[in-house]
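In this section we walk through a basic example: taking a raw amino acid sequence and producing a predicted 3D structure, encoded as discrete structure tokens. The instruction is simple. Fold the sequence below.
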Amino acid sequence: MAAPLLQMQAITKDFPGVRALDDASFEVRSGEIHALCGENGAGKSTLIKILGGVYPHGTYSGRMRINDTEQQFHSVRDAERAGIAIIHQELALIPEMTVAENIYLGKEPRRFGVIDRHRLYHEAGELLSQFGLAIPLEKPVYALGIGQQQLVEIAKALGRSLQAHIEQRRSLQSGNALLLVLDEPTAALTESEVDILRQILTRLREKGVACIYITHKLKEIFQIADRVTVLRDGKTVATQSIKSPECTEDVLISQMVGRELTTLFPERQTGNGSKQEEVALRVENLSTYPSEPPRLENVSFEVRRGEILGIAGLMGAGRTELISTIFGAYDGKWIGEIFIEDTPVQIHAPCEAIQQGMALVSEDRKRYGLLLDADVTRNMTLVNLGLSADLASYGIINHNAASEKSEHYVNSLQIKTTSLAVPVNHLSGGNQQKVVLGKWLMTHPKVLFLDEPTRGIDVGAKAEIHALMAKLADEGVAIVFVSSELPEILGMSDRVLVLHEGKITGEFTNDNLTQAEILRCAAGT
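The resulting token sequence is shown next.
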């Protein structure tokens, strides 16, 4: 049998105070889609950064072989020369540049030494069309939603990988690999966009391209992967064929978390209790303008204390715009009425929403929810400095009180950090999300907005956040949450609103509600 395309053997990598990888081994065959899964902090991203040359040879121990030849990458460029293309979880796009310019960044077509902009836009358009992606080429990336930014990043990497494949065949460089790595590629994508990506990867597999696919969505692993490797606490737990009868979702979850996870969604009784008779938030005839999409048109709804209201819909339906507008974070203008406990309120900025007892966990925690270079305590207390006299008075911060309150939420949310002084960019995605949640819970909100609260986090952290949502609802907090994952909508909601092109097309009590019913309303049919 031929040697695997990639072999990573006994890889160990240490950071100050923590061992990220502990004698981990991993291999990938040519023309294989190999899933790599594990909880946040299991070592997946560290392993991929070693493969991609981000952590150069000498900063870790172990061996790496490609096509049975030992490799020692000292830079990202070394990995690229060997045929490694990586789409990292953190997007590498230039916000001020257009979609087309980002796709060909550093690889721009030139004519007489000058960038050929006509050819650049033409080829970028053909590339997006080939992948079935409808994204405006001349739009700056900062004007796109996080989902569309993810698609641009995928198109850029896939386009370069395909070009590399063509060039390798032309030059007969059989010693070069073609290995595509996707780190959480579908975290911000809708089901239809996931289908497009799945079709693209299937075509690449048929061309002999190998793919490492990192995801927390177990359903995707069984839909597309050939084999799966599980990491836990920096160690390789198992590698198995997807077709093996022993390979099931329950088995993978048990291998990832090291324990039996009885349920992802906590048991809840909907519609009971006096708290649910009290309206916490009412919105009437909310519309945004000017009229360019995404927009909202005459949206009206209410949510009661102790209720979890799910907001479903396809990308661009206006879900994020809805909760952002209510929270005072919408860039444009709007009309309509907002009531907190039957009292009309005027909210034009997030600080006014916070004063009214609202909190918003945004869909992009790194862009809007965290100060990545700041420590846990600063992130936890930042919103609360102006709300609590215990934390700050006369412009002076009480650091002891800040540490005590932060410690309380770190413990109650089971945030894994070696110290409150650790910068949050050193934490895993799931623990970063818990820091954001802790920050807002410290404000003791009446209404909590959650926009994709479990995006990009592992199954264990998802279960913990779901349990927290249920606990907060039991305590009387009104929760409005957006999710692109219909099982999550069905598993956590008391009621469900469905948006299509800025309008409510369905409102359901979650009693035997099905995904099909939601999808019909989401499609506007």
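Looking at the output, two observations stand out. The domain at 6-257 is CATH 3.40.50.300 (Rossmann fold). Residues 412 and 438 are 9 Å apart (CA to CA). In the next section we compare this with other chains.
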